[in-house]
Amino acid sequence: MNQKQLEILDIAETLFAKNGFEGTSVRDIAKLAGINVAMINYYFESKENLLELIVKRSAHAYKLVPEQYNTEEDSFKRLDKLIDHYIDSKFDNKDVYQLLFMEAKIKKRIINSTVFKELRKHNTQLIKEVIDYGYERGDFRYYDPILIHSTMIGTFMNFKMNRSLYEELLALSPDEDFDKIQKELLSKHLKFTIKAILTHEHK
User: Fold this and answer.
1) 107 falls in which pLDDT band (50, 70, 90)?
2) Number of other CB atoms surrounding residue 134 within 10 Å
3) 93 and 181 in contact (C-beta within 8 Å)?
4) pLDDT at 66 over 90
C-alpha cells in the first residue's frame, strides 16, 4: 500500500475505535483524510474491507516473536521478557483493542474471526513453550497456557476499558503520563500474578 492508503487505515482505525464500526461513515474517514469518498472506494472498495485490513494488520503486530525473549536462559527472566513483549505489542496498537471490545458487544464480528483465532493459537503455543521450558528446569509447576493467556488478555482489557476509573483511583497529576504508568502497573501485576500461579503448589 502507498502512504495515503496507510494514512486512511490509521484514520479509520482511530474512528472505528472511538465511534464503533457502525457509528463511523466512509464520509467521516474521507473528511479526516482530506480526500473524497470515491477515493476510499477506489482504494478499498468498501468500509468492510477497510475493517478487514485493519484486523489483519493488527493481528500481525500482536504476534509474539520468540526472538524477543528466548535468549534468556533463566526461566523467570524469560517469562518477564515475554510479558513485556506482549504488553508492548498491545500498547503500540491500543485502538484495535478498543475496536475489538466494542464490536464483540454487538455481533462479535471481529473477535471470532479466523485471523484472531489463529493469532490466539499462535500466542498460546508460545506461552506454552515458555511454561514447558520452566517446568523442565524445575522452576515452574505446569499450568494450562490457555488460562494464562486468558489472564493476560483479560487483565489488559480491564486496564484498557476502565481508564477513567484508574485515572481517578491513581490520582495522577495533569503532567503525569497515564499510559506509561498504566503500562508499568500492568507489567508488574502480570509478572507477579503469573509467577505466583506457576510456582504455587496445585492440588
Assistant:
1) low
2) 21
3) no
4) yes
* Domains of the chain, CATH where assigned: 1-54 (1.10.10.60), 63-199 (1.10.357)
The end-to-end CA distance of the chain, in Å, is 53
Q: How many CA atoms lie within 13 A of 78 on its CB side?
A: 22
d(CA 122, CA 155): 19
Look at residue 100 in the predicted model and tell me its pLDDT: 66
Cell numbers for 161: 476499558
Question: What is the tens place of the pLDDT at every residue in 128-144?
Answer: 999 999 999 999 999 99
DSSP 90-153: HHTTHHHHHHHHHHHHHT-TTTTSHHHHHHHHHHHHHHHHHHHHHHHTTSS----HHHHHHHHH
If one counts every other C-beta atom within 10 angstroms of the C-beta of residue 129, the result is 16
